[in-house]
Amino acid sequence: MVHSAPSPRSGGGIVSVLAVAGIVGSLMQTLVVPLIGRLPRLLHASAADASWVITVTLLVGAVATPVIGKLGDLYGKRTMMLVCSVPLVAGSVVCALSGSLIPMIAGRGLQGLGVGMIPLGVSALRDLLPPQRVGPAIALMSSSMGIGGALGLPISAAVAEYADWRVLFWGSAALSVLVGVLIWLLVPATPAAAVRGRLDLVGAFGLGAALVCLLLGVSKGGDWGWSSGATLGLLGGAVLLALLWGLWELRVRDPLVDLRTTARPQVLLTNVASILVGFAMYAQSLVLMQILQLPAALGYGLGQSMLAAGLWMAPSGLMMMAVSSLGARLSAARGPKTSLFVGALVIAAGYGTALGLMGWSWGLMIAGCVGSAGVGLAYGAMPALIMGAVPRSETASANSFNTLMRSIGTSVCAAVIGVVLAQLTVTVGGHTLPSETGFRTALLIGCGVAVVAALVTLTLPKARAAAAPAPVAAATPAPASAPAPVAGPAPAAADVLGPWEDAFRTHDPAPEGRHHPRPVQEEAGVLSLEERDELLWLRRENAELRRELDVLMRGAGVWLKNLADDKPAG
User: What is the DSSP secondary structure assignment for residue 464, as one 8-state letter?
Assistant: First the structure.
């Protein structure tokens, strides 16, 4: 079945709904931050046990995201977004009704399942929008995640301070229901895989076990001790399980994550940059919020309440949305690689601003806005880089894996910054608090990681020029009896391909030594949109391989000719 592209009139509604879904999904991660100090009393638990209320959402979200992405590729992204809204609602209700630790952890775990909605929404934009609107929509969708995180903190702080804490979860349940209804009514169905594979259950459990060991060891290492047997065992187990999982994924027919695709330079380096950007983004959030709330008597604290600190940081979330259109235009003009590079440098500039203005609340607000502008540019570029390097049938799983890389970056950041601030302390009134030197060291680390992310971005391969394929779907598709042919990649000139032009041709050459690709229908009958797109992508790869082989063989021919010319006569 060939799905028609949505009309421009419907595109705005689709983007708005998916942006709201991104905001609600990211809200779940900051929802309980204002309650951290009160959770032990509210849930009748120790502080260490109560911290699982935050940790479990991170763990479940990290494990579920790649699985949900793969299911989105298999069964349709809209379908899985609707499925994700169910645990968001159920988890919020369970938390609202909880009076003890175990139900609260269970509810927060269900909320973590809904985080997979965000990369699904980003991937669905490629299926639902005309090509010229995909870039700006991805940038807006990506920035919406920052909006949820930045605005969620002051909103949840206000509710926790002036109302019953359960209102937070009833409100999140209502928002989740609203998102599910909007997706049902306004987001069209997205095409499922043309040839449906199977979910790799062994791969899903293997990746989940490796991630649980890694993230649990990283997040709890500070409490248990980094040299403790539990921490070292978890981190060692994560490495072993990851190696076994990788071997399995390379052998299985339908892998959860296609490691061969992930190993392509553009995908691999983008994921490495995503880890670094996730680290740099989260370090700023950790440091600035603490400086704002520490007592002013310390000399470097600013004495703000949780609500006031959240309000000082709220403009940074709005800044992410403000730069989304700028990032889209920059990516369209210079490519998403440039946007990611500029974004990483702007994040580094935000840390420099914080180092110079950390003595004033307004100074930290400016630093937060600068850093968030860089995050907005980077987050809008990363999905575009990923989707530009993978076939359409793998966009959801590839984007979900990229989201997982960012989550790993934030988790490692929390551990590293936690160690730094725990080692560089001062004692005031019997309380041990992070010192000014500790905060400055943390800011310098964040700045350095952002610079490394920019350097990694420079190693991304340059975009290869390829002829845009002819439209394969219009608002009114052509009759099946006379389908419009779909052009393959533009044929290269004879002086470029040379005598090796026919190396990969499976049919008779066209006149004058030029290769004119046959219409898709001529090769395999009437194909679906998914199959056409896959075939065109393979053709582009094939054409590039032929060009590279021609360069190699032409060089070998020149070398042999020179060798023959230099050989003494007789």
Answer: P
User: What CA–CA distance (Å, rounded) separates 249 from 258?
Assistant: 7
CB-based contact 45:73 (threshold 8 Å): no
Give the C-alpha distances (Å, rounded to integers) separating 172 from 23, 90, 95, 178, 179: 11, 10, 10, 10, 10
The predicted model scores a pTM of 0.70
Residue 243: per-residue pLDDT: 93
SS3 93: helix
C-alpha 327/C-alpha 323 separation (Å) is 6
Sign of CA dihedral 251, 254, 257, 259: positive
* More confident site: 14 or 483: 14
Q: What is the pLDDT of residues 41-83, one digit of tens each?
A: 888 887 777 878 877 887 788 788 888 888 888 888 888 899 9
Q: CB of 358 within 8 A of CB of 291?
A: yes
**CA–CA separation, 76 and 189 (whole Å):** 7
- Asked if 401 and 69 count as a contact pair (C-beta separation under 8 A), the reply is yes
- Whole-angstrom Cα distance, residue 489 to residue 468? 7
Main-chain phi, psi angles of 171, to 5 degrees: -65, -40
| pLDDT surpasses 80 at 359 | yes
Residue 66's nearest CA partner among 384, 381, 403 is: 403
DSSP sequence for 530-568: HHHHHHHHHHHHHHHHHHHHHHHHHHHHHHHHHHHHHSP
| First-to-last C-alpha distance (Å) of the chain | 69
Quote the pLDDT of residue 556.
66
Q: What is the DSSP-derived secondary structure letter of residue 7? A: P
How far out from the chain centre does Cα 183 lie? Answer: 21
Q: What is the DSSP string of 121-178?
A: HHHHHHHHS-HHHHHHHHHHHHHHHHHHHHHHHHHHHHHHHHS-THHHHHHHHHHHHH
Q: What angle do CA 86, 91, 96 make, to 5 degrees?
A: 130
Q: Is the pLDDT of residue 352 over 90?
A: yes
Core vs surface per residue 236-253: b (16+ CB within 10 A) or e: ebbeebbeebbebbeeee
Place of tokens 């094939």: 542
With cut-offs at 50, 70 and 90, classify the pLDDT of residue 127: confident
Which strand (E) or helix (H) includes residue 448?
helix 436-458
- Distance, in Å, from the CA atom of 211 to the CA atom of 243, rounded to the nearest integer, reads 12
DSSP state, 481?
A: T
The b-or-e profile of 313-328 (16+ CB within 10 A means b, else e) is: bbbbbbbbbebbebbb
Write out pLDDT tens, residues 362-375: 999 999 999 989 98
Is pLDDT above 80 for 277? yes
- Check whether 424 has a pLDDT greater than 50: yes
d(CA 523, CA 503): 19
The rounded percent of the chain whose pLDDT value lies above 70 is 77
433 beta partners: 426
